[in-house]
Automatic annotation (TrEMBL):
Cross-referenced Pfam families: Metallophos
Species, as recorded: Colwellia maritima
Domain Calcineurin-like phosphoesterase per the UniProt entry, residue ranges: 9-199
Keywords, ordered alphabetically: Hydrolase, Iron, Metal-binding
Coiled-coil portions: none
Keyword NADP among record annotations: no
Name this polypeptide is given: Metallophosphoesterase
Phylogenetic placement of the source organism: Bacteria, Pseudomonadati, Pseudomonadota, Gammaproteobacteria, Alteromonadales
Family: Belongs to the cyclic nucleotide phosphodiesterase class-III family.
Keyword Hydrolase attributed: yes
Amino acid sequence: MSNLKKTFVIAQFSDCHLFADKQAKHFGADVWQNLTRVLADIAQRDSIDCVVFTGDLTQDHTEVSYQHFVQAIKQAKLSVPVHFLAGNHDDRELLTKYLKGPDFDTNNTINHDFWQIQLLDSKSDTPSGLVNQQCLQALPAQMDEHKYQLLMMHHHPVNVGYYIDKHGLLEQDIFWKNIVRLNKAKINIKAIACGHVHRATHLTQFNVEVYTCPATSVQFGDTKENLGSILPSYRLFYLANNGAISSDIISL
């Protein structure tokens, strides 16, 4: 047991909103430069064990924007492959087409000595999210009851108190009933981490921690007219072998 790593470190980055034109800006932010700065910062941190991108790769929905994302990942020369899931702006087929090879990991379950991370697909036919019943019903078979669980998804499963809530997760009551049921059945879901909201928040629902990730592109204010920041940011998680979670926000 002494040889096992006591803390599992995850870098979560999200919502880069790339365009086919690398010079194009999103709410005034140079999204291509912001993404490459975040990836460069992640790459120089030796402690990181896992990297997860939680969606909204593209803003203009072009295939070229996906190619740019792959280029940015290759340029960064990360020490571990990138796990990923779809955001509401993303096309699952294009993610599958371009995000492949040694720089990416397509597994939806990430295993560690003491933890498992489950990547949930919350993309729907609208900007709002939905984790379908089939996905929820499949979760128990994927989960090791002897390990702590972190769920990661694009959409936020709790309201965060500003306009992005109108595009949050649909059927939240059904989602949380399943989470509560799993925890009562000896599955230890400690936390849920998501993107989409373009801001770092930390909430608690049914004794489960909920963390939202700041964006690499731009941080949102309380209204669309009141922009938060164009500083690129991401989140680090430290998952301890006793189930404790701590987190840092890195803004560049």
